[in-house]
Amino acid sequence: MPYKDELDDFRFGQKVKGKGALALVVQLTRAFSKDSLPIDPADYVTGKQGQVAGLGESNLRKILADHGITRQLAKEAGRTNRGNMGLMHAYAEFINGLPEPVDFYEIENYWIACVNEYFAGQPFKLAKDSSRSVTDAVNGLLEQATRRQRENPGMKYAGTVLQHLVAAKLELLMPTIEIHGASDADDQTGRAGDFIIDDTAIHCTTAPANLLIEKCRSNIEHGLNPVIITISDRVTTARNLLEDADIGGRVEVWDLQQFLSTNVYEHGFFNSNTRKNVLSELIDNYNSIIDEFETDPSLHIEYDK
């Protein structure tokens, strides 16, 4: 794209990587696009000379919404960052140094790509809340993964989170269990499922489909007991597909939320304090699995212990 090298140099030179700095340059780009060149930095200073003028949460939300982004980038919209005045002056100087006519549309798209990159690089969040059920906490993680997946078409965040949460629980029970990266396809590795435990083949999926049903049929033919672990609102889909394939009575279907919740309660001896410790151990183990088998650190779960 036009200006990419120049923008990269500016971004890294000025260390535009946090949410406040990104909020600032996104809003300034839109404001500069409506101004005449050269940009006069004095026009973008509040009366008390303390802040950059024109910044606001509603303004930022509108710009992001124009690009299909509904997540909140920065609640203060860049107003309170100490270095913003210097960054504004540097950005005005940068824009003034570009050959005219300046294509602000392309420049704004560059910064929007940086915003999406910022969102994609953030870990999933799990806040400590004693009033929240384990099922609801897991739902929250899956919702975050699904939302990120929508914002990054082609990525399978929800399925990866599901598989490695299952792996985290299984490894706590059986430390020697074999774990693979979520992108390692069964047919490429010769595995009969995502996890093989004795004569049981466990399959993890957020979207049960006919290909999975055929894998289950193959498991049965080879003397294995297949188990499907999916999200709660896909359990019925999986069972219907199995019934249509005449193997409904030979395959277990579990939903992830209950699979994890039951484990946390049982190993926490149904005590709230102990339950928090078990959940914390599960998340720590999940993060260790991500470190070992995945290359994307944004798959981590940040748990407010």
The unreliable regions are none
Give the end-to-end Cα distance, rounded to a whole number of Å.
Answer: 43 Å
Outline: elongated
The helix/strand order is: HHHHHEHHHEEHEHEHHE
Protein name: DUF4928 family protein
Organism: Enorma phocaeensis
What does this 3D model show about the protein?
InterPro entries: DUF4928. Pfam families: DUF4928. This is DUF4928 family protein. The protein is an alpha/beta fold. It has 2 domains: 4-120, no CATH class; 124-303, no CATH class. It is 52% helix and 8% strand. The chain contains 12 helices and 6 strands. The strands form 2 sheets. It has a 4-stranded mixed sheet with strand order 2-3-4-5. Strand 3 (200-204), helix 9 (210-221) and strand 4 (225-230) form a beta-alpha-beta unit. Helix 2 crosses helix 4 (84-96). The radius of gyration is 25 Å and the shape is elongated. The model has no long low-confidence stretch (mean pLDDT 88).
Pick out its properties:
305 residues, alpha/beta, 2 domains, 12 helices
What topology emerges from the helices and strands here?
Elements: H1 4-13, H2 19-33, H3 57-65, H4 84-96, H5 104-120, E1 124-126, H6 134-151, H7 157-173, H8 186-189, E2 195-197, E3 200-204, H9 210-221, E4 225-230, H10 235-244, E5 252-255, H11 256-267, H12 272-293, E6 301-303
Parallel strand pairs: 1-6, 3-4, 4-5
Antiparallel strand pairs: 2-3
Helix pairs in contact: 2-4, 2-5, 6-7, 6-11, 7-11, 7-12, 11-12
Gist of the model:
The protein is an alpha/beta fold. It has helices spanning 4-13, 19-33, 57-65, 84-96, 104-120, 134-151, 157-173, 186-189, 210-221, 235-244, 256-267, 272-293; strands at 124-126, 195-197, 200-204, 225-230, 252-255, 301-303. The protein folds into 2 domains: 4-120, no CATH class; 124-303, no CATH class.
